[in-house]
Amino acid sequence: MAIVKTERHPDMPPPTSEAGVIGWIKNNLVSSPLNVVLTVISIYVVWIAASNLISYAFINANFAGDSRADCTGTGACWVFIKVRFGQIMYGFYPVDERWRVDVGYILGAIGIFGILSDWVKNKKWPALYMFAVYPIICFFLFSGGYFGLTVVDTSEWGGLFLTLVLASVSIFVALPLGIVLALGRRSEMPVVRMLCVGFIELIRGVPLITVLFMSSVMLPLFLPEGMNFDKLVRALVGMSLFSAAYMAEVVRGGLQAIPKGQMEAANSLGLGFWQAVGLIVLPQALKISIPSIVNTFIGLFKDTTLVLIIGLLDLLSIVKAGTTDKEWLGMATEGYVFVAATFWVFCFSMSRYSIWLENKLHTGHKR
Amino acid sequence: MTTDVQGLGAGDSKLRDPRVRAIIYQILVIVLFVAFVAYVGNNTADNLDKRGIATGLGFLQQPSGFGIGIVLLMDYSSQTSTHFDVLLIGIINTLAVSIAGIFFATLIGFTFGVLRLSKNWVVSRIAYVYIEVVRNIPLLVQLLFWYFAVWGTLPLWKESFQIGDNFYVNNRGINFPSIIPTDGFWLIPVGLLAAIALSVVVSKWARKRQDLTGQPFPVFWASVGMIVILPLIAAIIMGLPFNIDYPTVARFGLRGGWVLEPEFLALLTGLCVYTGAFIAEIVRSGINSVSHGQTEAAHSLGIAPGLTTRLVVLPQALRVIVPPLTSQYLNLLKNSSLATAIGYADITAIFAGTTLNQTGQAIEVIAITMLFYLSISLIISMFMNWYNKRISLVER
Questions:
Q1: Is A273 helix (H, G, I), strand (E, B) or coil?
Q2: Closest to B352 (Cβ–Cβ): which among A210, A275, A302?
């Protein structure tokens, strides 16, 4: 019969109401009367927020100039940040010596690139550099006193530099300490287990401020007479102990995800406890807990601002001190917005990295 | 380490027994720990001796001698009150801001968690931006921002914003009418308690009846009705036993009524907005964890969308939500200690701050403060564990 077609009819494009821009709008913005109302209201809210923000931060803002008199606009006066930029970045680190901090940044960036990049296949050397060589270089570079470098007292450290020092030293101490605590918590020896549980739960149950108070007020009491640390080291002790307790819980999560058979298999091959842990269990456990470790580090990075309360001049407190300067009163909003934006850039990129890493490592152990 | 099998049964065999070794290790750990504690204790005793600080809790009875900005539920004067009163005020203030914070943070968190899942793209993006902006900025920065850049830049009291006739918003806080109880006020809280007790009884009865006959009973509206009506009846019986004190404009500021101080408001807004963002993420992932098949199955059984959410999705989502929610509540409690930075008189600010500086009793003060946080943390987690057990899956 003639009505039967022998060749295939060409594919029709999807109906315009379901595809492309129109379909997307129909399905996502105006699918029901309630949705129409919601869309209108939220677009209005976004418009108000965005237009105010842009006019505050850019259109009506002042960028040029170098004194309070140049703050003529109705919006933000970024001159305040510009004038104090050196201080915000380096604190009271002597201007002629600031290159040392920059060199430290560059050396650190090289190490981080070596560890994270896919181009470097053998991670042994970058890891060795980052965890053994780099801290020593930084110590001598930043505090000085050797190799013809002038001594820069830690009381002169400040700004973003101090924030980064606090965060990196704390994580550097907290990671190994956390691993030890986590192993201790899962130990079969009751004494070891109880001590570790006690420490972890004590620290996790109290706010960081009390730990910082403890390290800054009580540490001098605990040490024999004549032996005393400076403020920075005391803060570092508090922050490291605090983050070690949180790190321990993260690592414990990783350890729990490794089947017991791994340890038993290692033992049956004749590996001792430390060999089995170091070569078989920990590499797997740490691999799956890397995203959580990054998240803990983000929390730690944000928590470094608390040293404001014990009087260290980190990024936040140096800006806060700036806003109380008589010449620059009324710059609180600009100052805190700048600090918030700086922290946001660091934390948001780290959290994106952690999500990316989670997807990349999403290979084993999930059934 | 060698795997020397021939060593077994030889003279050192006892040392190769894991149980023996475990005991030796533990004894070693105990000895080291005791030595460490003794060393630290010894140093501390020496140092305290040299500084002439007497240990013990006697300092709690000494007069405090400093003023406190915010005092709730208690009388306080810098002359007669002791450091013990300071401790109590600190505890009350911490609890006040934490409880209010937990309430509002939960509200914000659940709202934005649901908005984040909205099918409306703009709404979901707004929630996403809120969550990602707030979570990645340190709480302390946000607190200072709220305190100095938001509440601090409000107009002076003379030019306060007025909402209606009796609400004033200015840089000294929010003033609003207060209720001053007179004789016979006691019946109103009694009425409220009776209403709550009755609601519990009614809900039990309603569940039993529904199990037997299948007939539902509007428990929620009945409870709301009782909670509103019973105290109202109590108030009418006693002839409205309270006066309302309206804030009025006086010469040096607003007088009368209640005031919410900017320190409290900044801390509360900061804590709620920050913790709310974390709770929103928890709620989102909790709801996402309920498989879509559950919703489809409920729809195919003819259950309405609203009921599906309430009876099918939420109960399952809550199981995933509650444990991380608990730790967010604990975080909020601990973060309330940041009050120190903006001058809200919580336990850390006035007790671990001012009292410590005045008396120098570092060890006792820090120990009491830590003990307080630990015990509240314990209470919150015990309550949440009980709740978690109640809603968790009952498996055969």
A1: helix
A2: A210
